[in-house]
Amino acid sequence: QIDEQGVVREFYQDPPLRIGLDYLVSAWADEDAEQQELLGAAMRAMLSMPVLEGEALEGDAFDPETRIPVRPIEDLSVEFLMSLWRGFGEHLRPAVGYSCLLRLESAGRSEDLRRVEGRRVAVDVF
Known about the structure:
Elements lengths: L16 E10 L5 H17 L2 E3 L13 E6 L5 H10 L7 E10 L22
Antiparallel strand pairs: 1-4, 2-3, 3-4
């Protein structure tokens, strides 16, 4: 990093944290057709914004340059969905999965490091 005076400042920074997130989007309504319409509207919204960035991201964890690609999960099996809904005590509902990979920069860093500027070797004779 170079400061305002043009001096190179070196430090150790903890490595970034990579987090893979999977989301399941579903719609709940009294009528099956209404569920399908709601899920379709949610899918259209996700398709219109395949990368989350800028004002779509809130919180201190995101830099202004942060971009998070969001992609549909294509291998979401019916067996998985049935097992999931059964765990909630519900029958199978329409749902679609999305996945994204985040890279969060660590705030943990050391004090400024100093490079070796010279060496001096001394030998004592006994």
